[in-house]
């Protein structure tokens, strides 16, 4: 009977304790699971938005580069020369340039030039990384193809981007299927007449590999479809070419996911996301006509719209959540077992407490064990202030042994300055508290045996024993907490100091009718010319707007999209001064004050004034540029007029002199014939001077066309030509390979031709003539040089070297017009470089020059 009552009481205590704990644990686990599920979905949604945006940026970048290449080829100088001349040399150079381009750019499978009748003029294939020129007999007429018709209808500097298409040869699709995007540009000659088009076949699989890489890094699967919903890229590549063969019955996006989701994707919004019962769908529309071109100012026509779509199936979402649920369930089961065990222990303890009188010795032993296992230092102090009992944690923290503390005063554990401050050491503590337990959370410092101190917190309570009342003192080491509090306080001080030192106004305001301030920094006080922070806080933000309509529109924008960035408004200070301000604000929400705005205000009056000045300067510059252009046109017309007017009398002098020599030579003596020859030579030299002056004038007026130039190849061509003109001369020359620069091909050829011709001329008397072309590379720049071992010159006259008509040698000894080096100087100057020379008489000369080259891609 007694055993049954004990069992009933145990079950009662157990249920009273266990049921609330189990319910609480169940609720906490459920809340944790719900919170994790929401967080996991938010992370997946953000990740998929980032994936489609990264895919969009990838397409933007790749097609921007290709468009730039197509426009570059349409402006190729060798193509222009061939269109103007039509000779075989220009055609060979065009073929070489396109061959070099395709080898340099491995992005493309084919590059072609097609004339306006659709006939291929040049076609180069990229066969396994090696460009191959197609023989003339294999060139085709493709006038009937869609991309040819559309490109020929475009205006100058326009680009046509075709849809993904298979590669077709002689009307047959090349196998295996290689999806291709064609970038085509109409080509106009110098008379602005349409002559044909440049075609670049971009290898579509390169873009697909990049998009698959992005897809591999995300949770979902990234796909790409065209406007008809046919796959350009999907997780299973076997269906990606379905857009090319509609008859094969390949599954479209709408057929795979349903009309409802396809309608969501094809709506007007350029980007969207939908958590549907069939999964998470995230898309962004890629309109090829709106992709920004890095060259600027170009038109893209007849381009289609693609849709980048990321799909995460419900299974993947559930799998991400299920693992956490399993772990949470396992942890919950373990906690349930622990709670049941704890409830049983507590219930048993409550039951056994009734039998404490019979088990005092056992209880004391359990108490001591509990005391020793406590993580805090625990002391029992008698009414005289002596330590009666302590645990091992006290020994560890204070460095004393039990024998050194038990029976001794507790004052040795506290610095002297706290001896009278804490009730543990006051004898009246027990008398005042009586038998009621008390907990005192007072912070002070403990003192170790070695004299060092550390922050502690002590909780006290009286304990009635058979030996009298003892004071139980639980001591906690709060060093970590103190350090965290100090660090937090310092961080707050640094944050406040940073906020106060910012050169822009920082504020917090409410979205009410007035826009009341909640907080401001000192810069706001100065910005609005207030006498103090309190004065400015007494006003509202709405009072400082010059136009309340601006504030209303800005408030609506913040509430709608959650933020504004750099909005320009006009504000006035408390003293009535108006100024332009840049306003940035973000909407936030707090449980106490509700919705509020945090933002910054910057005075941009100086910037606005500068913008106005710059606009005016640009307008003045445009007017001046138009005036200079008109003057240049007049100078050009004048130059050609003078050239024509001077050439006529010179031709007459030369012609009549030649007639006299041919018909009346027998009637003239030796002196007469000599005089006529001198007249002819003077007339011919005058004609050469006119040609040189016109060439110098054209160099000055020519607009640079930047392109990649092989300076080594150009120098070898010029030296080979000079050798062919004088085959009897033995000249040894060397040209350093790999001299690749960017500049105007025509002007740089003129510059090299003059310098190498001079070197060839001034080494004529040297039986072992030598010419060298190379460069010296320094940290700052590349210095090119042309060195010879010819006649040289006196460095005392080096400052006159590059002047017009300046000669340092007798014209009978070394013929020339004295304009060549002036032309060289102007070419180098137009390229932003410098030129100088070093020479010793009869030992040769070295001409150095630099070029301010644009970046070689």
Automatic annotation (TrEMBL):
EC number: 2.7.13.3
Top-level enzyme category: transferase
The keyword Kinase appears for this protein: yes
Domain PAS, residue spans: 363-419
GO molecular function annotations of the record: ATP binding; phosphorelay response regulator activity; phosphorelay sensor kinase activity; protein kinase activator activity
Catalysed transformations (reactions): ATP + protein L-histidine = ADP + protein N-phospho-L-histidine
Coiled-coil residues: 346-373, 607-634
UniProt-listed GO biological process terms: osmosensory signaling via phosphorelay pathway
Compartment(s) of residence: Cell inner membrane
Record carries keyword Isomerase: no
Keywords tagged on the record: ATP-binding, Cell membrane, Coiled coil, Kinase, Membrane, Nucleotide-binding, Phosphoprotein, Transferase, Transmembrane, Transmembrane helix, Two-component regulatory system
Domain PAC: 440-490
Pfam families noted in UniProt: HATPase_c (PF02518), HisKA (PF00512), HK_sensor_dom_bact (PF21623), PAS_8 (PF13188), PAS_9 (PF13426)
CDD domains per record: HisKA, PAS
Membrane-spanning ranges: 12-33, 328-351
Example of a GO cellular component annotation carried by this entry: plasma membrane
Topology class, membrane: Multi-pass membrane protein
Domain Histidine kinase, first and last residues per copy: 641-855
Primary localisation category: membrane
Listed PANTHER family: BACTERIOPHYTOCHROME, TWO-COMPONENT HISTIDINE KINASE
NCBIfam families on file: sensory_box (TIGR00229)
Protein name in the entry: histidine kinase
Native species: Nitrosomonas communis
Lineage of producing organism: Bacteria, Pseudomonadati, Pseudomonadota, Betaproteobacteria, Nitrosomonadales
């Amino acid at each position: 009977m007694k055993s049954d009552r004990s069992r009933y009481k145990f079950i009662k205590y157990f249920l009273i304790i266990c049921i609330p704990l189990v319910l609480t644990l169940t609720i906490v686990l459920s809340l944790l699971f719900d919170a994790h599920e929401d967080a996991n979905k938010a992370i997946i949604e953000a990740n998929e938005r980032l994936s489609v945006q990264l895919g969009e940026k990838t397409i933007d970048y790749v097609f921007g580069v290709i468009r730039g290449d197509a426009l570059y080829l349409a402006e190729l100088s060798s193509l222009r020369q061939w269109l103007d001349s039509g000779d075989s040399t220009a055609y060979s150079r065009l073929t070489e340039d396109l061959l070099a381009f395709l080898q340099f750019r491995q992005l493309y499978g084919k590059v072609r030039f097609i004339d306006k009748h659709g006939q291929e003029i040049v076609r180069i294939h990229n066969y396994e990384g090696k460009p191959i020129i197609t023989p003339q007999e294999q060139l085709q007429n493709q006038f009937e193809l869609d991309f040819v018709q559309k490109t020929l209808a475009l205006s100058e500097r326009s680009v046509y981007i075709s849809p993904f298409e298979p590669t077709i040869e002689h009307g047959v699709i090349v196998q295996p299927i290689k999806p291709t995007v064609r970038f085509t540009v109409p080509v106009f000659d110098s008379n602005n007449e349409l002559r044909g088009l440049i075609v670049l076949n971009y290898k579509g699989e390169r873009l697909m590999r990049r998009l698959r890489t992005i897809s591999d890094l995300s949770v979902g699967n990234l796909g790409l479809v065209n406007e008809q919903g046919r796959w350009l890229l999907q997780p299973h590549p076997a269906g990606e070419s379905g857009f090319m063969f509609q008859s094969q019955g390949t599954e479209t996006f709408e057929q795979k996911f349903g009309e409802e989701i396809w309608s969501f994707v094809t709506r007007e919004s350029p980007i969207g996301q939908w958590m549907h019962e069939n999964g998470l769908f995230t898309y962004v529309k890629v309109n090829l006509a709106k992709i920004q071109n890095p060259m600027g100012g170009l038109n893209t026509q007849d381009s289609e719209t693609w849709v980048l779509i990321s799909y995460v199936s419900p299974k993947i979402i559930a799998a991400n959540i299920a693992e956490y649920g399993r772990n949470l369930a396992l942890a919950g089961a373990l906690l349930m077992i622990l709670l049941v065990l704890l409830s049983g222990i507590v219930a048993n303890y409550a039951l056994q407490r009734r039998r404490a009188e019979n088990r005092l010795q056992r209880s004391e032993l359990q108490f001591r064990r509990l005391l020793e296992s406590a993580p805090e230092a625990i002391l029992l102090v008698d009414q005289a202030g002596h330590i009666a009992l302590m645990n091992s944690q006290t020994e560890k923290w204070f460095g004393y042994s039990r024998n050194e503390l038990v029976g001794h005063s507790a004052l040795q554990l506290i610095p002297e300055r706290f001896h009278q401050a804490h009730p543990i050491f006051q004898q009246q503590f027990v008398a005042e508290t009586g038998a009621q337990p008390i907990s005192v959370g007072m912070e002070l410092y403990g003192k170790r045996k070695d004299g060092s101190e550390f922050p502690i917190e002590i909780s006290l309570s009286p304990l009635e024993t058979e030996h009298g009342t003892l004071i139980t003192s639980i001591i906690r080491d709060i060093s970590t907490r103190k350090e965290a509090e100090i660090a937090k306080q310092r961080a707050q001080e640094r944050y406040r100091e940073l906020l106060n030192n910012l050169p822009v106004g920082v504020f917090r305001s409410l979205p009410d009718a007035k826009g009341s301030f909640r907080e401001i920094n000192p810069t706001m006080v100065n910005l609005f010319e207030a006498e103090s922070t309190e004065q400015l806080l007494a006003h509202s933000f709405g009072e400082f707007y010059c136009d309340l309509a601006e504030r209303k529109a800005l408030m609506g924008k913040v509430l709608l999209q959650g933020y504004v960035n750099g909005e320009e408004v006009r504000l006035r200070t408390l003293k009535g001064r108006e100024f332009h301000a840049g306003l940035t604000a973000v909407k936030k929400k707090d449980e106490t004050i509700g919705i509020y705005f945090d933002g910054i205000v910057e005075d941009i009056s100086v910037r606005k004034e500068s913008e106005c000045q710059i606009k005016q300067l640009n307008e003045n510059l445009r007017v001046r540029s138009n005036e200079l252009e008109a003057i240049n046109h007049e100078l050009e017309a004048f130059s050609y007029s003078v050239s024509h007017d001077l050439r006529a009398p010179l031709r007459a002098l030369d012609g009549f002199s030649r007639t006299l020599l041919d018909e009346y030579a027998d009637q003239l003596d030796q002196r007469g014939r000599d005089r006529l020859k001198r007249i002819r030579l003077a007339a011919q030299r005058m004609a050469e001077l006119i040609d040189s002056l016109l060439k110098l004038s054209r160099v000055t007026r020519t607009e640079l066309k930047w392109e990649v130039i092989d300076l080594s190849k150009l120098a070898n061509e010029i030296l080979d030509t000079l050798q062919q003109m004088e085959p009897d001369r033995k000249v040894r020359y060397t040209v350093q390979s790999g001299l690749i620069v960017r500049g105007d091909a025509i002007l740089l050829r003129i510059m090299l031709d003059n310098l190498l011709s001079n070197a060839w001329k001034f080494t004529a008397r040297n039986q072992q003539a030598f010419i060298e072309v190379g460069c010296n590379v320094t940290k700052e720049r590349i210095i090119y040089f042309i060195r010879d071992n010819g006649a040289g010159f006196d460095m005392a006259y080096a400052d006159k070297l590059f002047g017009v008509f300046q000669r340092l040698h007798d014209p009978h000894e070394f013929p020339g017009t004295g304009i060549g080096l002036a032309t060289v100087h102007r070419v180098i100057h137009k390229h932003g470089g410098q030129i100088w020379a070093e020479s010793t008489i009869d030992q040769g000369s070295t001409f150095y020059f630099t070029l301010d080259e644009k970046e070689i891609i």
